[in-house]
Design brief:
The protein has a single domain (5-166), classed as HUPs (Rossmann fold), CATH 3.40.50.620. The chain contains six helices and five strands, in the order βαβαβαβαβαα. It has helices spanning 17-29, 49-62, 77-83, 96-112, 132-140, 151-166, and strands at 5-10, 32-39, 68-74, 88-93, 117-122. A five-stranded parallel β-sheet has the order 3-2-1-4-5, with helices on both faces. The termini are far apart.
Length: 169
């Protein structure tokens, strides 16, 4: 029997409880999930690839997701999905803007490989307003972020921010 493998690509910087919610729900419906940290050369990340993967691993361990692994990739999501024998790309939606962007990507992805489906999951209402940007901004201001990320992820975020502040420019 063929395994149903999904890719959940994210540029989460840092990953939030909203990202984790989509991951946990995806893991219920697929045999295996690659939670993939997208490396987009056109984006500026506050956290390195290794730091993002460390934070993603915290969620995987916390939720005891035996059928999930975190990896980084660059380039086409479809080509990455093909390399992992995935049948699906999973996206989380919070807003109409998310829908528009994901819809355009799904159309483009279908043009590359029509056999890889795009599945969209709606974020939970209580997590709609949570974004990586919000978490970063609160953390930079020294505010609590534990309502938006795991406590272990909050520790990592605070530590990285503190290290950056202490380093001379």
């Amino acid at each position: 029997m063929t395994q149903r493998i999904a890719i959940y690509p994210t540029s989460a910087n840092p990953p939030t409880l909203g990202h984790a919610d989509i991951l946990v729900r995806t893991a219920r419906y697929f045999d295996y999930v690659y939670w993939a940290a997208a490396i987009n050369p056109e984006k500026t990340y506050s956290f390195t690839e290794e730091q993002r993967l460390l934070m993603m691993s915290e969620y995987i361990q916390h939720h005891q997701l035996k059928n999930v692994s975190a990896e980084a990739f660059n380039g086409s999501t479809v080509r990455y999905a093909q390399a992992r024998d995935a049948c699906a790309i999973v996206k989380g939606l919070r807003s109409l803007e998310d829908f528009e962007g994901e819809f355009q990507q799904a159309v483009g992805n279908t043009g590359i490989d029509p056999n890889i489906e795009t599945f969209c999951l709606f974020g939970k209402p209580e997590l709609f307003a949570v974004s990586s940007t919000l978490v970063r901004e609160l953390a930079l201001l020294g505010e609590k972020i534990e309502n938006y990320v795991l406590p272990s992820v909050a520790e990592i975020v605070y530590k990285i921010i503190q290290e950056k502040k202490l380093k001379p420019e």
